[in-house]
Amino acid sequence: MEFDWPEEALAFRKEVSAFLDHELPAWWDIGVNTLTAEAGSPHHEFCREFCAKLAQHGYLTPHWPAEYGGREAGAWELFALTEVLSACGDPRGQQYMNVNWIGPAIMRYGTPEQKRHFLPKMSRGEIQFCQGFSEPDAGSDLAALRTTAIRDNDEYVVNGQKVWTSYALTADFCFLLVRTSPGSRGPTGISVLLVPMNLPGLIARPIPNIMDHGFCELFFDELRVPVSSRLGPEDDGWAVAMDALTFERIGMARFARALRLLDELIGRLRRSGEMSRPGTAERIGRAIAACHAARAVAYRVIDARARSLPPGPEGNVARLASNWAEQFAVDAIFELSRDAVETGSLADGALRSALPSGHATGSVEVNLGIIAKRLLGLKGEA
Ligand SMILES: Cc1cc2nc3c(=O)[nH]c(=O)nc-3n(C[C@H](O)[C@H](O)[C@H](O)COP(=O)(O)OP(=O)(O)OC[C@H]3O[C@@H](n4cnc5c(N)ncnc54)[C@H](O)[C@@H]3O)c2cc1C
Question: Which of 100, 128, 140, 368 to mutate to test the pocket of ligand 1 (most atoms within 8 A of CB)?
Answer without folding.
Answer: 140
